[in-house]
Amino acid sequence: MMNHSKIQAMAKKLTKNPDFESSLKELETLVNKMEQGELSLEDSLSHFERGVQLSRTCQQALKDAEQKVEILMKKNSQEEITSFDSEDA
User: Which domains are assigned to the chain?
Assistant: First the structure.
């Protein structure tokens, strides 16, 4: 079980990275620019590379958030964790 200091360390690590919302917004902006088809090949590749980085950042942020939820659920003695199905939402 994680103690309070480990949770605080995880939170500090998360705050050092750009937040999920700003990364996602930047990723959406890059995709929109690329979809317009007006970028040079070099700019397209640069945007693509940045998009991959942002995608990984967002995926990691979601993974970290999921882990935090699992930790909190276990702390509250709710051992059974059901998967979220986006089709049910």
Answer: 19-75 (1.10.287.1040)
